[in-house]
Amino acid sequence: MGLISFQRPLCANSRSQLRRKMLGFRHCTRAWSPRGHMRRREFITLIGAAAASWPRAARAQQPDRMRRLGVLMAVAESDADVQKGIAILRQRLQELGWKDGHNIRIDYRWGGGDAKLFQTLAKELCDLQPDVLIGHSTPSAKALLKQTGAIPIVFLTVTDPLGQGLVTSLSHPGGNITGFSVFEFSLGSKWLETLKQIAPGIRRVTAIFNPDTAPYYGLYLQSISAALPALAVESIAAPVHNEADIENIIRKVASEPDSGLFILPDSHNVVHRKRIIELTVKFRLPTIYYFRYFVSDGGLLSYGPNELDLFQRTAGYVDRILKGTSPSDLPVQQPTKFELVINLRTAKEMAIEIPAALLARADELID
Predict the structure, then answer these.
(1) Stretch 281-308: mean pLDDT, rounded?
(2) Neighbours of 249 (CB within 10 A)
(3) C-alpha to C-alpha distances, 247 to 22, 205, 254, 258, nearest whole angstrom
(4) What is this structure's pTM?
(5) Domain for residue 7, yes or no?
(6) Quick one: 162 and 235 in the same domain?
(7) 166 in the same domain as 258
(8) What is the CATH number of the domain that holds 165?
């Protein structure tokens, strides 16, 4: 294209129109010569500057960009009870202004209680470069933290974030991770007291866990051991790695009189809970669980934190991080809601009479 010039001076209105076309640059009139001609070099410079500013102007006029949230769940996607937690998380996020598919995209990965999968799934999520990550359970949170020290992480249903090296302080976590713990040291004594109420003759209790998916198991064993002398009960640790191990342990415990079971909070136990419940009911073995959904699925009774409440509170931390708060400024929170749930139908099937005092204390009775 040759030299561009205008054969007559532009009037004020024409210059105003051109200025508007040039994105309102105040200095655009400097490109005009006293005789009303635009110098070629100045015109090209002006066009280049205007073009360079267009993307910035367009971004400024657009609504907030789509945010991305990565969620690493420890259990199987088919788990209907855990899906209730996901539904609560999504609902609370929407109440806070984050609607999936509208201004936030949520990507899920499901570990299925398989310790070997967590690192692979954590890397997949980190490669998506989300704005925030959620780690459900200790193995999920540890896998995510191993993959990134930059992307903010919110964990939930984690037993010992300090002892597991996730944070350096509960009040001031530091780094890129914070969240919600589920452990309270007094749980061990409350479990023992509850089992003794429904089966006064118990002399030994066995705690079932997978050390690969519950690396914090020692903390629970300490909690249980602290209450043993006062109740004259022996505690036995029973590590398992697959469903066959679980079956063998339960059959062995059932063969010994005056025995009871603790099913420790562990994604491996969650995944295999239907088989655990089936066997404990079959052998009429007094068993206490950690989460409500064990009991709604047919287990005898549970005492522990309300996990659905943790999903709701997790959404609040995600919201604050998306709005600019650093995870290092958000303290690790302890559980605030504990619930005792009893399945009366299962108790009847197992020929266990639940004391009236325990029934009165229950937060929920399933019949």
Answers:
(1) 96
(2) 19
(3) 76, 16, 11, 19
(4) 0.79
(5) no
(6) no
(7) no
(8) 3.40.50.2300
